Amino acid sequence: MRRKIIAANWKMNLNYNDAIYLSRQIFNNLNSIDTPNIIISPPYIYLSELVELFSKIDNIKLAAQNCSKSKKGAFTGEISSQMLASINVDYVILGHSERRLGFNETNIDIKNKIDLCLENKLKVIFCCGESLELREKGLHFKLIETQIKESLLHLSKNNLQNIIIAYEPIWAIGTGMTATKDQAQEMHKFIRDIIKSEYGQDTSEQVSIIYGGSCKPSNSRELFLQKDIDGGLIGGASLNADDFFDIIKSIKCI
Ligand code: PEP
Fold first, then answer.
1. Which residues contact 60 (CB under 8 A, 6 or more apart)?
2. pLDDT above 70 (res 240)
3. What is the pLDDT of residue 42?
4. Average pLDDT, rounded, for the chain
5. Ligand 1 pocket residues where CB is under 6 Å
6. Distance from residue 214's CA to the centre of ligand 1 (Å)
7. Is 128 helix (H, G, I), strand (E, B) or coil?
8. What b/e string do you get for 147-161 counting C-beta neighbours within 10 Å, with b at 16 or more?
9. E strands within 13-64?
10. First-to-last CA distance in the chain?
11. 234 CA → ligand 1 middle, Å
């Protein structure tokens, strides 16, 4: 059975006190209840402390928002996958459009980062998504297929189990414009079909494919009800505890 997942991407938000305050709200609210799988992705510098805090709750894991494409060495300012593994981080978000566009990350860079993460026993949230321009030209399926082919399809069946795929249309990220449930379901099914044709039906049914892009309490339930949508990657709405809990509740009651 596919896992239901809600992941929070805090991006470059929250100073230390605010990050700890929000983390404690999450800890206190989710401590005693049966939650879906939750992944929290704070800025790097809070990871150690939050790994420790959330180690007391089985269903909450920590993710880094990126890692270096190099193993180690003279790369000032970079953080390696090995370092993340050494502080017991579980996941790394890779291929986010903000990194593809703002830091010129290519599909091959992302592939290399995925391989380094898997070598270090880190799991990956792999993001893919098209611009509005490509969607309007009808090229969105081709783009997603290329992103997946060039970064993921070299993986073995076993390694694919360590990947969560996040479909995040760029035009919906942080814009308040969400993909409709039909647009999202159509793309999630397309992605699952790529996995199916490469790895077979059973594997495709085990991969969690989550949606990201202005997901909020008012639209999360109808998105999560779709057959191929296994949860969400939540940006802005994950910075507000009440909104984040409401999104979690909307998947819990499905
Ligand atoms: C994201 O950047 O991963 C994201 C989904 O952001 P938002 O929810 O703010 O659109």
1. 26, 30, 35, 38, 39, 40, 54
2. yes
3. 98
4. 96
5. 9, 168, 173-174, 212-215, 233-237
6. 6
7. strand
8. bbeebbeebeeebbe
9. 37-41, 60-64
10. 15
11. 5
CA-nearest residue, atom 4 of ligand 1: 235
Cβ pair 54, 60 in contact under 8 A: yes
* Rg of the chain on CA atoms, in Å: 17
Burial bucket for residue 180 (CB in 10 Å: 0-12, 13-18, 19+): exposed
d(CA 173, CA 211): 11
Lowest mean pLDDT among 5-9, 15-19, 31-35: 31-35
Closest residue by Cα to atom 7, ligand 1, is 235
Residue range 56-78, pLDDT digits in tens: 998 999 999 999 999 999 999 99
pLDDT for position 94: 98
Nearest CA to ligand 1 atom 6: 235
Ligand 1 center–CA 235 separation, angstroms: 4
Band of residue 12 on the pLDDT scale cut at 50, 70, 90: very high
Q: What is the pLDDT of residues 111-163, one digit of tens each?
A: 999 999 999 999 999 999 999 999 999 999 999 999 999 999 999 999 999 99
What's the rounded Cα separation, in Å, for the pair 156 and 159?
5
